[in-house]
């Protein structure tokens, strides 16, 4: 899968008392980038739940912080598929200053499981999604 880039501007609400991005917000940025990637391939989380009866649930999360981002900074969050299994996908994320080639601010790996919307039990990834992961 080709990496997906999503722009983020840092607002006052994203920062802590020291004027830097609060660490938990990077997890939100990574989540939003995955959601926007899914929209870009033609599906929304709501549509998948409603029409296909499937959800994605974070089961593993690892984040490394390199340097702080600050108020009004512009970041690019790059998301890419690392590995996929029958019922899970491992995404890698990078938050970079300014452009996708800018200074690395934070990086992370997030494993999401495909689950049935009714039972919350693991479910095989749909073929259409597996095709887009290549």
Walk me through this protein's architecture.
- It is built from 3 helices and 5 strands.
- It is α+β, with helices and mostly antiparallel strands and 134 residues long.
- A 5-stranded antiparallel sheet has the order 1-3-4-5-2, with helices on one face.
- The longest helix has 18 residues, at 23-40.
- The chain starts with a strand and ends with a helix.
- The mean pLDDT is 93.
Question: TL;DR of this structure?
Answer:
The protein has helices spanning 23-40, 45-52, 127-133; strands at 4-9, 54-65, 74-84, 88-97, 104-116. With 134 residues, the protein is of the alpha+beta class.
Strand order of the largest sheet: 1-3-4-5-2
Radius of gyration: 16 Å
Distance between the termini: 5 Å
Structural class: alpha+beta
Contiguous runs where pLDDT drops below 50 for at least 5 residues: none
Could you tell me the mean pLDDT? 93
Shape: elongated
**Count the strands?**
5
The H-and-E topology, N to C, reads as: EHHEEEEH
The largest pleated sheet is described as: 5 strands, antiparallel
Strand content: 35-45%
Count of DSSP helices?
3
List keywords for this structure.
elongated; alpha+beta; 134 residues; five-stranded antiparallel beta sheet
């Amino acid at each position: 899968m080709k990496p997906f880039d999503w722009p983020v501007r840092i607002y006052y609400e994203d920062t802590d008392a020291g004027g830097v991005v609060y660490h938990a917000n990077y997890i939100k940025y990574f989540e939003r980038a995955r959601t926007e990637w899914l929209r870009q391939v033609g599906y929304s989380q709501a549509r998948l739940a409603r029409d296909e009866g499937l959800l994605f649930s974070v089961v593993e999360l690892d984040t490394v912080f390199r340097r702080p981002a600050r108020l009004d900074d512009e970041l690019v969050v790059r998301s890419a598929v690392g590995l996929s299994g029958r019922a899970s996908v491992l995404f890698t994320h990078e938050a970079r200053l300014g452009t996708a080639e800018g200074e690395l601010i934070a990086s992370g790996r997030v494993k999401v499981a495909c689950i049935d919307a009714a039972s919350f039990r693991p479910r095989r990834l749909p073929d259409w999604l597996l095709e887009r992961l290549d």
